[in-house]
């Protein structure tokens, strides 16, 4: 079924267990010797001594900001490239729309103006006829109505209903007089202007062409397009300023990153001689008196997650040999001792509560194994050291001794672990010395190893 993970009775995801485990236990297997050949591991050892973790955190934050700034600048430059390619076409379209005079009126208004101009002469003749009917010297409506008003005025005292009629005739006269004035003004305002009519028709034709060209339903749609083109052109023109701002930002972040990378590099260079000295001393204790160990730190041209340094471990095990990269010069046993020396040196900086060595002692034996056991014992003063070993010299150094074994139950195999008491511990160490058949000499030797341990 489903598994569940807990930390102090609190349910957590497996990723949290993994993250916490990496901070509590360092498991080192015999296969981990291969890590010695990787620049990442070699750099991590130097960084443990140099305590670069705080400044690397700041550096990586700035690196993230710079990557983001680079991406933004690239996008702006791409937009500028595309925009410049279309800029002339946008300007041509905008100029065409601006010259069209979209704000001069609607199509309906222009068509009304055209209709007035087209019928100007007939309209003016008809208005003139109306003016004549209203105000001719003979039988004009205003003249006749004026005569009517005079008669009605004389009758006002003769009949009670006449005054009302008089007012109505006065109102009628005033209204006709006003109509006459408006007609006269209208007559004077109507001009037959072929040039203006031609200009209106030209504008209407242009509107029709532009609407068809841009698939617009109205002049308002053309105006919206004009605004859009103005914004596009303005955007391209403003990109230059944005790009300059982006370049300045990129340059500042680059300078800040360079400064941090130099600080990190100085820290690494500063601890390198001390690491070399300590590793050489530990290798000498493990039976390699002529071993030499050098840390090379070279500068890369680019920034990555670890800075601008490239770290390489140079090593030689024997007198007269040349320093070479580890993978080209060290044997399995030499790699085991070198890895143990590195772990032993770095452990006080890494501050792990527990370290597990899984057969790190492969490829060594005898007196060298005893010296390796001493170094592990010294590491145990500052942390919990768990060692899986087949060497009696190392097993005898442990404060506690557990036996790992397998047993069959039906058709299944089970792995078990049991703590050994003093007597069983002597027997197990003796087996490491002589095999399953225990001899008195092996038992005595086991006792001596335990007393020495």
Task: Kindly list the characteristics that best describe this protein.
alpha/beta; 3-stranded antiparallel beta sheet; 453 residues; 65% helix; rod-shaped; 15 helices; 3-stranded parallel beta sheet
SSE diagram, text form:
Blueprint: E1 5-7, E2 10-12, H1 14-24, E3 25-29, H2 39-50, H3 53-99, H4 107-118, H5 120-135, H6 141-154, H7 162-189, H8 194-213, H9 219-285, E4 292-304, E5 307-316, E6 324-325, H10 326-329, H11 332-350, E7 354-358, H12 366-379, E8 384-388, H13 392-395, E9 402-409, E10 412-419, H14 422-434, H15 440-452
Helix pairs in contact: 2-9, 3-9, 4-8, 5-7, 6-7, 9-11, 11-12, 14-15
Give the % helix. Answer: 55-70%
Number of strands: 10
Output the helix-strand order: EEHEHHHHHHHHEEEHHEHEHEEHH
Coarse morphology: rod-shaped
Low-confidence stretches: none
Question: Would you tell me the overall average pLDDT?
Answer: 83
Number of helices: 15
Distance between the termini: 46 Å
What class do helices, strands and sheet pairing give?
Answer: alpha/beta
Q: Mind summarizing the main beta sheet?
A: 3 strands, parallel
Strand content: 5-15%
Rg over alpha carbons: 51 Å
Query: Which strand order do you get reading across the main beta sheet?
Result: 3-7-8
